[in-house]
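Example record used in the benchmark description.
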Amino acid sequence: MIKTLNVLLAERSYPIHIGCGILSQVDLILPHIKQKKAVVVTNTTVAPLYLEMLRSALEKAGISILPVILPDGEQYKTWETLNLIFDALLGAKCERNTTLIALGGGVIGDMGGFAAACYQRGMPFIQVPTTLLSQVDSSVGGKTAINHPLGKNMIGAFYQPKLVLADISTLDTLPDRELKAGLAEVIKYGLIRDPEFHDWLDANMEKLLARDKEALAYAVQRSCTNKAEVVAADERESGERALLNLGHTFGHAIETGMGYGEWLHGEAVAAGTLIAAELSCRMGWIDAGDVVRIERIFLRAGLPIVSPVLGVDRYLELMSHDKKVQDGKLRLVLLRGIGKAVVSEVASTAQIAAAIEARCT
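Model output (structure tokens):
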């Protein structure tokens, strides 16, 4: 069964289709392809698994496919790799109405979307996420970017897809570590705005880890519902959307400081969320019992709850590049309870430093 949600952004609204075995259901994709040619951007890991299935289905419908296969890994989310996409688009004489399909995880979705935003000042693109993290978070909402040595996702654009097609069956081939990393973003939604979902996750974590299709489909659907509501209310992150970054300011510092690819994004977000919870507790906004409850759910998901030792000064320097910095002030997403997140700039440097030290190994 296919579940369809909608991201409501006026004339830029688009559907999110969620289901098992829907990758080859081209009737869901064809209405969003304007030409008889499309580009599929994927990577060396996903291509052998799913490129031929998608290409065969589209070619049977009369759409010729140009595959662009990139190296796999966060460390390749760079200008140099992005230019490989532009080289292919220009070499094939792709036009402004040629559709770009991003087939893969968050790195492919981010780079494919950014390339689509830039090529001839904007070409249509479709997200086909194949990891849990990309299905529940990065494929929805139009954030596209590449990394810079000084900061993660610092160069990019807001650019919405025409469609998100999330096939739960693609999670069958996802490595356990990647599945667990995706659960960090799922847990996030319960912590920031959906306490009932947090309770559901607490009761169903073992099913998710066992890749129960029904449980995974529900988790993706509930996460996308939360994400779609937030994006519809605040597309360009001027207010509520910033709450989706719980744990990310600390997490991005971990990813950058350790070297891109050493920690998976979800692993860094999990550890970063515990720093945020620690800080929230030190500010008197949540109690120690809440911190223990948050620790427990991340531990049950097989995720880290302590951060690497980079040194407080290094953390603070990396965090100074965060996109939520305004007028030189660092704003953090903190918790006032399970299911209630806030953006605040009231934490002092000493409080932030103490929280980092408390949660580092």
